[in-house]
C-alpha cells in the first residue's frame, strides 16, 4: 500500500508538466548561417520567427564552409544553412516541415530545398509558386522526398 501515494503523485506531476508545456509553447532554437548580401534569407528568418522559432542569425562570408561541414552537397545547396536540434536545414524549407521533422526526431537527417524556388517561404514572387520538393538527406548523401509542393501555374 505504500506505493500508492507515490503513483498518484507521479501521475499528477505528469499531468502538470503536460499542461505547462502546452501553455508555454516554447520557441524552438535555430541557428541560421547566411551571407550579408542575402535578402531572401532575411525573409526566411522572418517566416521562422512568425512560426515560433527563436532565431540566432549568424552573418558570415563563408556559408559554404557550413555546407561542407554538414554534408550539404552541391545538389542540395541553396543560400542559407541552419542547424536546429542537431538537424541541418538547407535553404527555404517551410517551418511546418521543420516542425514535422523535429516531431519524429530521426537520427542524422536534415532537410533541404535545393536552389531557390519561387513561392517558398522568403521567396514569394507575387503569387507565383514553382513545384518543389523538400528533400531529406543524411550524412551519407542518401536523399528522399520528404514533401512535395505543387505549382500553382
Ligand atoms: Cu534564399
UniProtKB/TrEMBL annotation:
InterPro entries: DUF411 (IPR007332), Thioredoxin-like_sf (IPR036249). Keywords: Signal. The keyword Signal applies. It holds the Pfam family DUF411. Residues 1-21 form the signal peptide. The keyword Transmembrane does not apply. This is CopG protein. It comes from Crenothrix polyspora.
Amino acid at each position: 500500500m505504500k506505493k500508492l501515494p507515490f503513483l498518484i503523485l507521479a501521475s499528477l506531476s505528469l499531468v502538470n508538466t503536460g499542461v505547462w508545456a502546452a501553455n508555454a509553447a516554447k520557441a524552438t532554437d535555430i541557428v541560421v548561417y547566411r551571407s550579408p548580401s542575402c535578402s531572401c534569407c532575411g525573409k526566411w528568418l522572418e517566416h521562422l520567427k512568425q512560426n515560433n522559432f527563436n532565431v540566432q542569425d549568424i552573418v558570415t562570408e563563408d556559408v559554404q564552409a557550413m555546407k561542407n561541414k554538414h554534408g550539404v552537397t552541391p545538389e542540395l545547396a541553396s543560400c542559407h544553412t541552419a542547424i536546429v536540434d542537431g538537424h541541418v536545414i538547407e535553404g527555404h524549407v517551410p517551418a511546418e516541415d521543420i516542425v514535422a521533422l523535429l516531431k519524429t526526431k530521426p537520427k542524422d537527417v536534415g532537410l533541404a530545398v535545393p536552389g531557390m524556388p519561387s513561392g517558398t517561404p522568403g521567396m514569394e514572387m507575387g503569387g507565383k509558386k514553382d513545384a518543389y520538393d523538400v528533400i531529406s538527406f543524411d550524412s551519407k548523401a542518401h536523399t528522399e522526398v520528404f514533401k512535395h509542393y505543387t505549382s500553382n501555374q
